[in-house]
C-alpha cells in the first residue's frame, strides 16, 4: 500500500513542486497519474520510490515512511521504470541486464538464473544480444522485464508508452496488464488517454503540484471541469459519446451517451438501432 499524507516536496528546498498532496493506493490497484507537463507527476513517482523525500508530510510504503527505509529495502518493494529505458539499461548483454537487479539486491544465484531464463523465454529475447543494438520498443520491454523479474509488489512506470508505435505500446501494456491481473500494484504516469482508458481502473489528475481529481477512470475522464482544469482531452469514444449527448442527438442517460469503449459504443449503437427498428416497424 502507498500512502501520501499531506506531502509537499521541493528540489531546491525553497520552491514547492508538490503542495499538500494526499492519496492512498491499495494493493492490486492500477492507477494512472495524468495532467499537463510540469504538473508534478514524475516528482510524485520519485517520492514513491524514495529518490526524493518530502519536505513536509509523509510518504508511506506498507505503513513505513520512505524516510525510514533504506534504498535497498525500497527497491525490493517498488520497481521503477524510467521514462527513457536508456537511463536504466547498463549491461553488455540482455542476460546480464536481467541478472543485474538480483546482484544489486544480493540475490544472485541459481534461483535468479532460473527466473531470468524464464523471462528470456517469455519475452522471446536473445540473451546474448547487446541491449543498445535493440530497437526502442524492445529496449523498453527489456527495461520493464528487468524490473518485473525481481517480482516487486509495486511497479511505478513513468510514461511507459512514450516513443513507442502502436504495436510496441500494446505489447508493453499487455505485460503491465497481466502483471496487475496477477496482483501487482501498478502506478503509471501517462499522457495517452486512450491507454489510460484501456488499462487503468483509477485516475489521479494533477495540476500545478496538486491533486485535482481522484476516482474511477471514466468518472474522472468524463468530468468536464476536471478535463478543463487539468487540460485533458478524454479518449475519443468518451469525447464522441459526451458530444452526442451535449448536442441532444441522444439522451444523456442513454447507453450511447455513457459508452466509454469502442465495444461499449458498438453495443450501445446496436441497441439503439434495434430500438429504432422496432419503433419503425410499428
Ligand atoms: N530535477 C529537478 N530539479 C529541479 N526542478 C525539477 C526537477 N525535475 C522536475 N523539476 C520541476 O518540477 C516541476 C514538476 O515536474 P515533473 O517532472 O514532476 O512534472 P510532470 O507532471 O511529470 O511533467 P511531464 O509530464 O513534463 O513529465 C516542473 O516545474 C519541473 O521543472
Automatic annotation (TrEMBL):
Write down the InterPro entries for this protein, in alphabetical order. Answer: AAA+_ATPase, ABC_transporter-like_ATP-bd, ABC_transpr_CbiO/EcfA_su, ECF_ABC_transporter_ATP-bd, P-loop_NTPase
A GO term, aspect molecular function: ATP hydrolysis activity
Major place of localization?
Answer: membrane
- Which domain of life does the protein's organism represent? Bacteria
Alphabetically list the UniProt keywords. ATP-binding, Cell membrane, Membrane, Nucleotide-binding, Translocase, Transport
The places in or outside the cell where this protein is found are:
Cell membrane
Keyword field contains Chloroplast = no
Q: Which GO terms describe its cellular component?
A: ATP-binding cassette (ABC) transporter complex
- UniProt cross-references to Pfam families, sorted A to Z: ABC_tran
- Record-annotated ABC transporter domain positions: 2-233
Stored CDD domains = ABC_cobalt_CbiO_domain1
Against Gene3D superfamilies, the record matches this protein to: P-loop containing nucleotide triphosphate hydrolases
Please give the family membership noted in the entry. Belongs to the ABC transporter superfamily.
Protein name per Swiss-Prot or TrEMBL: Energy-coupling factor ABC transporter ATP-binding protein
Q: Which organism is it from?
A: Ellagibacter isourolithinifaciens
